[in-house]
């Protein structure tokens, strides 16, 4: 299983703040996961492809070619707006 | 020393000031407080005023990022103590939302570290604001001015 | 708005913060507090620690100079409210000596104005410090670092 | 009468924080006053001649060639050290 988190407006576009996805070996990288999540939702595909969106795996910022493992937590992060 | 808190509750200025002042050899305390304003920087003329603000964050990751930012500030400046408190959840205009406090021997270090912490907190820490105005909810965009403010510290990394 | 005070009494951080926060449209409050340290910047190694500090000022002229500095800060930055409180008379290590507070819509203005006020206060306002260490009284010299800090604001006058 | 004030270490050197001096027309400028005050006290003459010492007449900073009038308050100010 992969745990997927959408923060900020990405949650609105995804229709949820978190979801689980069965892990399979074909989801080799975060980029592959992003494409799979966008496949059924064109607005989400566009939003996740925006250059300012960042991704964290197990709470560490990573590049889009980061590989995934069973049990990983993947968070999609729009530009932060705290403070 | 450092105190890092993410909380729904309000914070107490006097208590935080007392704590920062108690570190040894302190000649300067800088306290920054951010408040929920009743307007937005880029708000169109005539737009309804903001009446609610809600803060989301990424539990676990936020704490870790704030600790990193504080560690970086302590490495750059000779400071005695640091406090970062950020509220989450539902807030109203006028509410206190964030506190950054620094105590140091001299004012230059205290001011620089406090500004650095705020700039990095605004551009790195995993918080997201949603505002409501006249019943309509909207996620806030990152301000270009904040990105520019944070980038001024990159030169000497 | 502005509050300028020269007084022997201590000041109340929470009350000053509340006052600055009460101005309309405030998104940021910066409070600087200067404390009497138990050491001097240029103190020789092994010199006895400072145990008393006494502040002299030029009544009338000081108030006028502080008002000028505050007016200049308000002309340079869009700030909502300003407080400057400076204590005079006899103080002890750890005592609060000066408070500069600024409230503004945005943090950049609040930080810049507070730093400007402190830099100018240190180099222009008619206060003189005398410290006592091990029974010996000595007038304090102006720090070169303060002169340099103040001069950075001169470019855009 | 002229009212004369010495602040900071200048008070120690002058031996007083303030003194009155009968006004006479020969004290045409602040510089003349400074020289007259230093005439009887070499340490004070040296201290008042230091380039960082400033002078105020009636609580306004002035140049050394500022002229003086009966009743003026003249303050000699070493570099300030507040804050």
Oligomerization state of this entry?
heterotetramer
Mean pLDDT score of chain A: 96
Quote the beta fraction of chain A.
Answer: 25-35%
Find the count of extended strands of chain A (DSSP E, 2+ residues): 5
What do you see in this structure?
The complex is a heterotetramer, with 2 copies of chain A (83 residues) and 2 copies of chain B (157 residues). Chain A is α+β, with helices and mostly antiparallel strands and 83 residues long. Chain A is 29% helix and 25% strand. Chain A contains 3 helices and 5 strands. Chain A has helices at residues 9-14, 30-39, 42-49; strands at 2-6, 18-21, 54-57, 60-62, 73-77. A 5-stranded mixed sheet of chain A has the order 2-1-5-3-4. In chain A, strand 3 and strand 4 (60-62) form a beta hairpin. In chain A, helix 2 packs antiparallel against helix 3 (42-49). Chain A starts with a strand and ends in a 6-residue tail after the last strand. Chain B is an alpha+beta fold and 157 residues long. Chain B has one domain (2-39, 49-151): Molybdopterin biosynthesis MoaE subunit (Aldehyde Oxidoreductase, domain 3). Chain B has 4 helices and 8 strands. Chain B has helices at residues 13-21, 61-76, 107-124, 144-151; strands at residues 2-7, 28-35, 52-57, 79-87, 89-91, 96-104, 127-133, 136-139. A 4-stranded mixed sheet of chain B has the order 1-4-6-2, sandwiched between helices. Chain B has a 4-stranded antiparallel sheet with strand order 5-3-7-8, with no helix packed on it. In chain B, a hairpin with a 2-residue loop joins strand 7 and strand 8 (136-139). In chain B, helix 3 (107-124) packs across helix 4. The relative contact order of chain B is 0.23. The model of chain B has no long low-confidence stretch (mean pLDDT 91). Chain B binds chain C through residues 12-14, 17, 21, 25-39, 41, 94, 105-108, 110-111, 114-115, 118, 145, 149, and chain C through 12-14, 17, 21, 25-39, 41, 94, 105-108, 110-111, 114-115, 118, 145, 149. Strand 2 (28-35) of chain B pairs antiparallel with strand 2 (28-35) of chain C.
């Amino acid at each position: 299983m992969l745990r997927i988190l959408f923060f900020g407006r990405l949650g609105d576009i995804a229709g949820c703040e978190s979801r689980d996805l069965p892990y399979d070996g074909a989801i080799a990288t975060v980029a592959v996961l992003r494409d799979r999540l966008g496949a059924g939702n064109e607005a989400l595909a566009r939003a996740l492809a925006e250059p300012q969106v960042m991704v964290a795996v197990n709470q560490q910022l990573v590049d889009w070619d980061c590989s995934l493992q069973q049990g990983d937590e993947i968070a999609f992060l729009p530009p932060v707006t705290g403070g | 020393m450092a105190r890092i808190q993410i909380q729904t509750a309000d914070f107490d200025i006097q208590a935080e000031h007392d704590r920062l002042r108690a570190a040894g050899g302190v000649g300067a305390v800088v306290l920054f407080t951010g408040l929920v304003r009743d307007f937005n920087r880029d708000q169109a003329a005539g737009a309804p005023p903001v009446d609610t603000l809600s803060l989301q964050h990424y539990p676990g990751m936020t704490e870790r990022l704030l600790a990193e930012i504080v560690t970086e500030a302590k490495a750059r400046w000779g400071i005695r103590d640091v406090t970062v408190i950020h509220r989450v959840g539902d807030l109203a205009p006028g509410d206190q939302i964030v506190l950054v406090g620094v105590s140091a021997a001299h004012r230059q270090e205290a001011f620089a570290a406090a500004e650095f912490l705020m700039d990095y907190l605004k551009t790195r820490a995993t918080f997201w604001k949603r505002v409501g105005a006249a019943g309509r909810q909207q996620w806030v965009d990152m301000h270009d001015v904040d990105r520019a403010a944070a980038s001024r510290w990159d030169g000497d990394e």
